[in-house]
Every structure is written in C-alpha cells, then in structure tokens.
Write a structure and sequence with these properties.
Layout (H helix, E strand, L loop, with lengths): L7 H8 L2 E5 L13 H17 L2 H19 L5 E7 L11 E7 L11 E7 L6 H19 L7 E6 L3 E8 L2 E5 L3 E2 L3 H11 L5
Parallel strand pairs: 1-7, 4-5
Antiparallel strand pairs: 2-3, 3-4, 5-6, 6-7, 6-8
Helix pairs in contact: 1-4, 2-3
Length: 201
C-alpha cells in the first residue's frame, strides 16, 4: 500500500500517531511578497489550470512556480524534486511517488537529508490528500533519521494550487492547520513555506 492509499485513520492506526487539528497554526509567519515574475505566471496560469482541471495541470502551472519562487528566494540553496519515487521502508508501505519534495541541501541529482517539506497536489478534494501527505511526512522523518540528519520537524502541504493547507510532524505528533490559504494570499503562502526552511540544521 503506497503513500497514496493511506487515509488519516489508517496512518494514525498503523504508526500510532497523535493527530490534532489546530487553528491559526502558521498565522504568525511573516508574509513575503511575490516577485513580478511569479505574479505574472499565476495570473496567466491560474485560469488555464482551472479550465484543464487536472492534478497535473494544477501541479505544473501553479504549485511548481510557487515552490520554485521559494527556491529562488533561498538563493537556490535548497533541493527541489518533483514526481520522484520515494521508497523509505517498503515493508511498512512507506513507498510511492511524491509530487514535490524540498530539502535543506541544494543537491539536485539525489534526495539528500534533511527533507524539510513535502507538497501533495490535489485536483479538488483537499481532505483526501491529508492522509497521503502525512504518510509522506512520516517517510521523510524516518529517512532523515536513517541518514543521520535527525531533523525534528517535517512540514507538509496539500494544495489544489488555488487553495493551500499546511501540516507539521514532530516524531509521532501531527498537527493539521485548519486554516486554508487562497492564491490571492500568495504573500502568506510564501511566508509560511519560507519559514519552514529557516530552521537550523
């Protein structure tokens, strides 16, 4: 059973996780204005992505440009991976494809610890992506441990491109932000994503 097969209830039971909803979990993060390039891309791409209405379109036309903006703002000193197979512990079903992975190392050819953030693209049903994202976050946390880079916190996001929800995992505790962030709030979305990468490794 790959990451995509896990519901919230299944991942909670399988790995004895504590999962809690929280309001305003990342509301205090400092917003960051988008570049003119990103604003133009989003203005041009959002309508097309909505018309095509597929996960692939939303992923390529909206989510990827946002994450690449984060990479640029971090002076290209983070790793960016898209559509990669991420097999951590196949015997525990922590295996499968991840839409996007951000790491704290700029290595581009292989995924290198620590993994900081995973982003799962969904066409419309945000909640269906939460269990999958939590499974990927748990896989990332275990990968970091195995690689000798015990990053204490791994972050995640589930996004349709136009709507974003964020999550946080610390060992066996998962917090799901109840707040939804919409594309016109791109400065807040960027601020939250950038804050995930401000940690000291």
């Amino acid at each position: 059973m790959p990451y995509s097969s896990f519901s919230i209830a299944q991942i909670k039971t399988a790995f004895n996780l504590e999962i809690h909803d929280r309001s305003h979990l990342f509301r205090d993060r400092e917003p960051h204005p988008p570049s003119e390039i990103l604003k133009t891309l989003l203005e041009e791409n959002a309508a097309l992505a909505a018309t095509l209405s597929t996960e692939k379109a939303r992923s390529e036309l909206i989510i990827a440009p946002v994450l690449l903006e984060v990479r640029r703002l971090k002076n290209y000193q983070i790793g960016f991976f898209s559509g990669v197979n991420f097999a951590v512990e196949p015997e525990l079903d922590l295996v499968g494809e991840c839409d996007f992975i951000l790491t704290a190392e700029p290595e581009a050819s292989i995924i290198t610890a620590p993994i900081v953030t995973l982003v799962e693209a969904k066409n419309d049903n945000m909640r269906s992506g939460l269990g999958q994202c939590i499974a990927q976050m748990l896989g990332a946390w275990r990968f970091n441990q195995q690689e000798g880079s015990p990053q204490s916190t791994v972050y995640g996001a589930v996004s349709t491109g136009t709507v974003w929800r964020f999550l946080q995992l610390q060992e066996t505790q998962v917090l799901i932000d109840l707040d939804e962030y919409y594309l016109p709030q791109i400065d807040q979305i960027l601020g939250i994503l950038l804050s995930f990468l401000e940690l000291k490794f």
